[in-house]
């Protein structure tokens, strides 16, 4: 926006010289969430794409099927996220060429993504990345990354705009943090959640985030990875 | 700020701005004030039918340019001053255009550090039986003129106005002069637009005029529809 | 001249009695110096005492707390014989929804109402202040308050504070001179017109107004138009959301506030129940204080006597 005012001296309008620097980043909102089960993994995200107080799209799905029963999402600055996923897919194609279409394991995919992210150490991809798949034993695997490639395998992780709203809910409902067994008085034991329970948690997490975060809404996309392959579901979210 | 060079570019963030084309012209029977009707906040047109011609006394009016808040506050003060003090029944004679313009000038000069206001004060002086125009630009100086133009759009019409202004025009000539001048200012200045409003101040009284775009001021000559005889 | 606060020092200690002395390690005696508070009470207007301190803190790189800004859609529209204002009900603090059903329609006087956008606290306080002054003025003059009077009071107050009071208002109402509609910006400028929109959703709302508005509308048409304009803000502006509040002011009638006139954003049922079993929250430590002595006395109830 101009910092010049229109005055009587319209023709002699002068503005204070202000140093302008191009800002290559923007924030496109949205939230993603991954949960690993015993023999499945889910990766979910809303489909709203925003800038500032405006909605660019109400349906821009951002959970990508990479093949090899892997799904990935890079949430934050969506152009960077798209670029990251595309370069990953390209690397994966080369990997298939060179290794007789060998299936890429989630752990290897995670290490590759680390290198892609760290390759931009001093001009980072402005994204929070999560991938989901099944490990060698067939157990659900979630890997999450910071913008410059630090990563960790986790049971569950929320990323993006409403991550701080969803993560404590997940700690409590997936890892049973701050829950005690009334009978024994000991911390509630960790158990694997069933797929339908996880799906209900995901839906509640997103309807709740939609209530309290303005950049979350419109539609919920869930990708489910089982030994049968990758399946996708969509649910409507509030549009205000 | 050193008091000599005035920082006119300090419009506070989000302030409503009258990026404007305004003018006032004396003629045979009195004076006519004219203005566009656009008010902007950044690129958004906050009001497309603004009335920038404000009455401060019976036949003393002003054209406002600069900050909407500042110019409204100033005119409110001047109006109350003229109504309840110098122009009230307690005084021997009604307020003159000169007095009104002087009050404007005093306010604009004394508060120059805090104001972004460019005002044209014009009126019909009942005693002298003539129209008068005073221009009070940012900084608070005062200039008595036969006609005055101001606002961001005025830069485009200095040449046109200088070529086409004549003393002692008729009412219709003057209205036409203002319509064409402001039409050009609106055409070339992005911060001016909307309708053209005018106030005609003569011995006979006060008359309001309005000209709409396309219909009455933005039609290029070659597309003008010939009037039936 | 600057008014000097009266310097009075009352070293005062608040003693909380009836606490077990065994807990003597805790400082139950709370010393309270009230001299500083007293000096503030004596001064009129807002207190700027923390300004220097806050600037210092800010210069050290500590972020200032953010005021709740009502990223808002508010509108107003006149009809034959009255005026309608409307607002959404979302209040935001940054990207977080602070209140899902807040009230942005404020009463200045029984028949003059005001919709506020900008800093929530500013719209609330400026409205209360001007509302009070308006009532005093109406009592003094023994007349119904006028919309133009409230407009003047508001604009002069906001101009005085040079935009630091972030209140953007749509003022509407009916008075002995008819129905009126105005808008005011934080710096003190005012606008007149048959329809007005303000707030972050004002562009969405204005697009509805500019396409649907027509002259000489009925009350019902006008309410519908205002509600539609607010809805445009609710759906298309992230700063606006939840419900539509409407206030109708008709000449010769009491103003009626239609709270939650439209509720297009009711939350669906959650997929799961989150009731915890009793005892899920561990009791780490327990201590009970007797703050008062409870004495039980038996009072004989008088026998019922037949008349």
UniProtKB/TrEMBL annotation, chain A:
<keyword id="KW-0963">Cytoplasm</keyword>
<comment type="subunit">
    <text>The 26S proteasome consists of a 20S proteasome core and two 19S regulatory subunits. The 20S proteasome core is composed of 28 subunits that are arranged in four stacked rings, resulting in a barrel-shaped structure. The two end rings are each formed by seven alpha subunits, and the two central rings are each formed by seven beta subunits. The catalytic chamber with the active sites is on the inside of the barrel.</text>
</comment>
<keyword id="KW-0647">Proteasome</keyword>
<dbReference type="InterPro" id="IPR029055">
    <property type="entry name" value="Ntn_hydrolases_N"/>
</dbReference>
<protein>
    <submittedName>
        <fullName>Proteasome core particle subunit beta 6</fullName>
    </submittedName>
</protein>
<dbReference type="InterPro" id="IPR001353">
    <property type="entry name" value="Proteasome_sua/b"/>
</dbReference>
<dbReference type="InterPro" id="IPR016050">
    <property type="entry name" value="Proteasome_bsu_CS"/>
</dbReference>
<dbReference type="GO" id="GO:0043161">
    <property type="term" value="P:proteasome-mediated ubiquitin-dependent protein catabolic process"/>
</dbReference>
<dbReference type="GO" id="GO:0010499">
    <property type="term" value="P:proteasomal ubiquitin-independent protein catabolic process"/>
</dbReference>
<dbReference type="InterPro" id="IPR023333">
    <property type="entry name" value="Proteasome_suB-type"/>
</dbReference>
<dbReference type="GO" id="GO:0019774">
    <property type="term" value="C:proteasome core complex, beta-subunit complex"/>
</dbReference>
<dbReference type="Pfam" id="PF00227">
    <property type="entry name" value="Proteasome"/>
</dbReference>
<dbReference type="GO" id="GO:0005737">
    <property type="term" value="C:cytoplasm"/>
</dbReference>
<keyword id="KW-0539">Nucleus</keyword>
<dbReference type="GO" id="GO:0005634">
    <property type="term" value="C:nucleus"/>
</dbReference>
Automatic annotation (TrEMBL), chain B:
<keyword id="KW-0645">Protease</keyword>
<dbReference type="GO" id="GO:0019774">
    <property type="term" value="C:proteasome core complex, beta-subunit complex"/>
</dbReference>
<dbReference type="GO" id="GO:0005737">
    <property type="term" value="C:cytoplasm"/>
</dbReference>
<keyword id="KW-0888">Threonine protease</keyword>
<dbReference type="InterPro" id="IPR000243">
    <property type="entry name" value="Pept_T1A_subB"/>
</dbReference>
<keyword id="KW-0539">Nucleus</keyword>
<comment type="subunit">
    <text>The 26S proteasome consists of a 20S proteasome core and two 19S regulatory subunits. The 20S proteasome core is composed of 28 subunits that are arranged in four stacked rings, resulting in a barrel-shaped structure. The two end rings are each formed by seven alpha subunits, and the two central rings are each formed by seven beta subunits. The catalytic chamber with the active sites is on the inside of the barrel.</text>
</comment>
<feature type="active site" description="Nucleophile">
    <location>
        <position position="20"/>
    </location>
</feature>
<keyword id="KW-0647">Proteasome</keyword>
<dbReference type="InterPro" id="IPR029055">
    <property type="entry name" value="Ntn_hydrolases_N"/>
</dbReference>
<keyword id="KW-0865">Zymogen</keyword>
<dbReference type="GO" id="GO:0010499">
    <property type="term" value="P:proteasomal ubiquitin-independent protein catabolic process"/>
</dbReference>
<protein>
    <recommendedName>
        <fullName>proteasome endopeptidase complex</fullName>
        <ecNumber>3.4.25.1</ecNumber>
    </recommendedName>
</protein>
<dbReference type="GO" id="GO:0005634">
    <property type="term" value="C:nucleus"/>
</dbReference>
<dbReference type="InterPro" id="IPR023333">
    <property type="entry name" value="Proteasome_suB-type"/>
</dbReference>
TrEMBL record, chain C:
<dbReference type="Pfam" id="PF00227">
    <property type="entry name" value="Proteasome"/>
</dbReference>
<keyword id="KW-0378">Hydrolase</keyword>
<dbReference type="InterPro" id="IPR001353">
    <property type="entry name" value="Proteasome_sua/b"/>
</dbReference>
<dbReference type="InterPro" id="IPR023333">
    <property type="entry name" value="Proteasome_suB-type"/>
</dbReference>
<dbReference type="InterPro" id="IPR000243">
    <property type="entry name" value="Pept_T1A_subB"/>
</dbReference>
<comment type="subunit">
    <text>The 26S proteasome consists of a 20S proteasome core and two 19S regulatory subunits. The 20S proteasome core is composed of 28 subunits that are arranged in four stacked rings, resulting in a barrel-shaped structure. The two end rings are each formed by seven alpha subunits, and the two central rings are each formed by seven beta subunits. The catalytic chamber with the active sites is on the inside of the barrel.</text>
</comment>
<dbReference type="GO" id="GO:0004298">
    <property type="term" value="F:threonine-type endopeptidase activity"/>
</dbReference>
<dbReference type="GO" id="GO:0010499">
    <property type="term" value="P:proteasomal ubiquitin-independent protein catabolic process"/>
</dbReference>
<dbReference type="GO" id="GO:0043161">
    <property type="term" value="P:proteasome-mediated ubiquitin-dependent protein catabolic process"/>
</dbReference>
<feature type="active site" description="Nucleophile">
    <location>
        <position position="72"/>
    </location>
</feature>
<dbReference type="InterPro" id="IPR029055">
    <property type="entry name" value="Ntn_hydrolases_N"/>
</dbReference>
<keyword id="KW-0888">Threonine protease</keyword>
<feature type="domain" description="Proteasome beta subunit C-terminal">
    <location>
        <begin position="264"/>
        <end position="298"/>
    </location>
</feature>
<dbReference type="InterPro" id="IPR024689">
    <property type="entry name" value="Proteasome_bsu_C"/>
</dbReference>
<keyword id="KW-0963">Cytoplasm</keyword>
């Amino acid at each position: 926006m101009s910092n010049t005012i229109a005055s009587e001296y319209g023709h002699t309008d002068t503005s204070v010289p202000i140093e302008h620097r191009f800002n290559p980043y923007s924030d496109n909102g949205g939230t993603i969430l991954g949960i690993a089960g015993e023999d499945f993994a889910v990766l979910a995200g809303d489909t709203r794409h925003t800038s500032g107080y405006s909605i660019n799209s109400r349906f821009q799905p951002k959970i990508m099927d990479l093949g090899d029963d892997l799904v990935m999402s890079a949430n934050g600055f969506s152009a960077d996220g798209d670029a990251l996923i595309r370069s990953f897919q390209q690397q994966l194609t080369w990997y298939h060429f060179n290794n007789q279409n060998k299936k890429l394991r989630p752990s290897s995919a995670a290490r590759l993504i680390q290198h892609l992210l760290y390759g931009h150490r001093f001009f980072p991809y402005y994204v929070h990345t999560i991938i989901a798949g099944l490990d060698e034993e067939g157990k659900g695997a979630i890997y999450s990354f910071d913008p410059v490639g630090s990563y960790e395998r986790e049971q569950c992780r929320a990323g993006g705009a409403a991550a701080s709203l969803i993560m404590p809910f997940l700690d409590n409902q997936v890892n049973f943090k701050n829950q005690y067994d009334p009978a024994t008085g000991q911390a509630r034991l960790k158990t694997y959640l069933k797929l339908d329970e996880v799906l209900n948690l995901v839906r509640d997490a997103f309807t709740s985030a939609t209530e309290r975060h303005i950049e979350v809404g419109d539609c919920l996309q869930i990708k489910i990875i089982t030994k049968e392959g990758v399946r996708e579901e969509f649910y409507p979210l509030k549009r205000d | 700020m050193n008091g000599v060079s005035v920082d006119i570019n300090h419009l506070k963030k989000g302030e409503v701005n009258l990026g404007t084309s305004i003018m006032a012209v004396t003629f045979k029977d009195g004076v006519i004030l004219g203005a566009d009707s656009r008010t902007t906040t950044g690129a958004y047109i906050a009001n497309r039918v603004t009335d920038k011609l404000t009455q401060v006394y019976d036949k003393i009016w002003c054209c406002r340019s600069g900050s909407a808040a500042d110019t409204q506050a100033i005119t409110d003060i001047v109006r109350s001053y003229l109504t309840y003090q110098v122009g009230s029944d307690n005084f021997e004679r009604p307020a003159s255009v000169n007095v009104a313009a002087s009050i404007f000038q005093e306010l604009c000069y004394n508060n120059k550090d805090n104001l972004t206001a460019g005002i044209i004060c014009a009126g019909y002086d009942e005693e002298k039986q003539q129209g008068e125009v005073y221009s009070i630009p940012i900084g608070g100086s005062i200039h008595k003129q036969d006609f005055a133009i101001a606002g961001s759009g005025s830069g485009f019409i200095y040449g046109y106005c200088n070529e086409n202004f004549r003393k002692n025009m008729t009412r219709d000539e003057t209205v036409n002069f203002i319509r064409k001048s402001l039409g050009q200012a609106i055409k070339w200045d992005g911060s001016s637009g909307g309708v053209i409003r005018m106030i005609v101040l003569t011995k006979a009284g006060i008359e309001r005029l309005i000209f709409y775009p396309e219909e009455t001021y933005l039609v290029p000559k070659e597309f003008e529809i010939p009037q039936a005889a | 001249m600057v008014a000097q606060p009266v310097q009075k020092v009352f070293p005062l200690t608040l003693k909380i009695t009836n606490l077990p002395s065994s807990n003597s390690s805790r400082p139950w005696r709370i010393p309270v110096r009230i001299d500083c508070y007293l000096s503030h009470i004596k001064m009129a207007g807002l207190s700027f005492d923390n300004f220097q301190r806050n600037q210092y803190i800010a210069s050290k790189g500590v972020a200032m707390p953010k005021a709740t800004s009502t990223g808002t859609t508010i509108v107003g529209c006149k009809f034959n014989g009255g005026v309608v204002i409307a607002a959404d009900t979302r209040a935001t603090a940054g990207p977080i929804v602070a209140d899902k059903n807040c009230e942005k329609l404020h009463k200045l006087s029984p028949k003059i109402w005001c919709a506020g956008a900008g800093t929530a606290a500013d719209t609330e306080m400026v409205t209360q202040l001007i509302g009070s002054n308006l009532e005093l003025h109406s009592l003094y003059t023994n007349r119904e308050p006028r919309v133009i009077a409230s407009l003047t009071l508001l604009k002069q107050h906001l101009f005085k504070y040079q935009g630091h009071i972030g209140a953007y208002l749509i003022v509407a109402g009916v008075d002995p001179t008819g129905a009126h509609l105005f808008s005011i910006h934080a710096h003190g400028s005012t606008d007149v017109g048959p329809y007005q929109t303000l707030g972050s959703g004002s562009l969405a709302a204005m697009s509805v107004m500019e396409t649907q508005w027509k002259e000489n509308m009925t009350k019902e048409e006008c309410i519908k138009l205002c509600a539609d304009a607010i809805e445009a803000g609710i759906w298309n502006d992230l700063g606006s959301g939840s419900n539509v509040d409407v206030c109708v002011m008709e000449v010769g009638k009491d103003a009626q506030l239609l709270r939650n006139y439209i509720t297009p954003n009711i939350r669906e049922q959650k997929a799961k129940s989150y009731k915890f079993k009793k005892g899920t929250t561990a009791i780490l430590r327990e201590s009970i204080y007797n703050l008062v002595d409870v004495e039980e006395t038996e009072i004989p109830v008088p026998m019922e006597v037949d008349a």
